[in-house]
Structures are given as C-alpha cells and as structure tokens.
Design a protein that fits this description.
With 259 residues, the chain is an alpha/beta fold. Strands 3-4-5-6-8-7 form a 6-stranded mixed β-sheet, sandwiched between helices. Strands 1-2 form a two-stranded antiparallel ribbon. The longest helix is centred in the C-terminal third of the chain and has 18 residues.
C-alpha cells in the first residue's frame, strides 16, 4: 500500500497532489517522478513490481515478501544537521526473516546529482558566506560513516555521486530506527522515449563505482536484477550498529504512449 502522511495514494492524481517533485517540470511522461507513480500506484501488498520482487529473490538473505508499505518522496533525517534526504519511495517490508527497509531511487536517465567533489566545493562556497554552516561537518560525518580508507585501484571518493551517499545513509537511518538488520538501496531505472543509452550508461558507471567503493572491491560489476551485499559500513558517529547494507538495480521498459 502506498500512503503519504497516513493517507492512501490510490491514483496517479493522488500521487501528483501529495507526492509531486519539487519542480513541476519533472512531472512528465518519460521522466522518473511520473513513471515511478505509474509503476507503484495501485500496487497492493504483498505484490511488488516484478523486477523489484525478482531482485530481492536473487539474494539468499531475502525471502518471499509477505507485506509492505511505501511512502513516496519520503523525507529522512540521518544526522543532527538540517536538511533531510529525499527518498523517491521508502518501503517497509517483511519476509520470513523479519522486517527490512528499501530506499528506491527512481531514475530515467537523470544523473545522481553532484559528485562528492562538487558538493564539497559548494559547501566551501556556502561556508564563506555563512560561517556557521554545518554542510562540511555533515559531509565529513557521512563519509566516515560509510567508507573505509581507500585501497589501491578503488574509485576515489571525490568521484562518487553524493546522492548515493545520502540515500544510503537514509536507508541505514530508517533501518536503525525500525530496529531492522537489513537496509536496501535499490535503483529503479525507467527506460522511456526520453532516455538515452549514453546517459543511462553514465548512471550505471556511477552506481558501479559506488558499489565497488562501499564493498571494498568485493563487487567489481553491477548486473541489473541482482542485489549485492551485505556490506558492513563503519558507522562512525551516525550509526552505532549499522544494519547490513544491500545495493542493487532493476530496470523497466516503458511504452511511449504512457500517460
């Protein structure tokens, strides 16, 4: 069941009214915000979109989902600083092993935001005009919570996409608050008439770099439809006993006449 503020979201009109993206320009056929709505609205627990169910079933740590609920455009605080992470769809689910959470990042071919280097540069600019800004402190806490020191040939931190870091921290924070031992970050890619192979390839490379780094090199390639993990992050000041982290990607072909 999809809901927002405990109110059911039962139609694409409900989704737009209660869970629309920040910019109305993002709400259009072929773009991730609206396509995610088309995919999930009306989906009733325990049934999941087939690509999502298959990805979970690909990993031995997950069984048949017995129930789930989801909140679109979920605002999740993962630290003591201002500004929560925005998760496209946050799922609370259960199987025979108990509860787990899934942070779904919906993408057509939109990028995963700035790199860590770009976000750091932006934080420095803000610090000049606002000396009390805590943006840099947040970034330091975040990277210490998620990553071990870099080993040779591992992707460099500055090249990773910051949105993947905040989505991961949000999933771990929700899992911690719910007392669950499994946190999943799942990229759901919609292939539409507006997407290009080049941009989708770039996104896949960014996701692969992130998984390579957070896995310490245990995962070198990311295959669509599979879930990888569990990865054990340091936790740092953010998570005293972080849940096992799982990361994966699924894809969906969207007909050009979707409305």
């Amino acid at each position: 069941m999809i809901h927002k503020s405990d109110i059911p979201v039962e139609s694409i009109e409900d989704w737009f009214a209660r869970c629309s993206p920040k910019s109305a320009r993002q709400w259009k056929d072929g773009r991730s915000a609206k396509e995610a709505g088309h995919c999930w609205v009306g989906m009733q627990s325990p049934t999941l979109p087939p690509e999502v169910a298959a990805a979970l079933a690909s990993h031995p740590d997950f069984g048949e989902v017995t129930r789930w609920s989801g909140e679109p455009e979920a605002q999740v605080r993962f630290d003591g600083h201002s500004g929560p992470a925005n998760i496209d769809l946050l799922l609370h689910a259960s199987d025979a092993r108990g509860e787990f959470v899934v942070a779904v990042e919906a993408k057509a071919d939109e990028p995963f935001g700035n790199t860590v280097a770009g976000s750091l540069a932006r934080s420095l600019e803000v610090k000049l005009s606002t000396p009390n800004s805590k943006r840099m402190a947040r970034m330091e806490e975040l990277v210490r919570a998620l990553f071990h020191p870099r080993e040779k040939r591992m992707p460099r931190l500055e090249d990773l996409r910051y949105q993947l870091l905040t989505a991961t921290a949000a999933a771990l924070a929700v899992a911690h608050g719910a007392g669950t031992a499994r946190a999943v970050v799942l990229v759901q890619e919609f292939r539409t008439h507006l997407t290009t192979p080049k941009r989708r390839k770039e996104n896949h490379a960014d996701l692969t770099s992130f998984v390579r780094r957070i896995s310490g090199g245990a995962v070198s390639t990311v295959e669509e439809g599979r879930l990888y993990g569990p990865f054990r992050v340091p936790g740092g000041a953010l998570f005293s006993d972080p849940a096992g982290l799982y990361v994966g990607k699924v894809g969906r072909e969207v007909a050009s006449d979707a409305s």
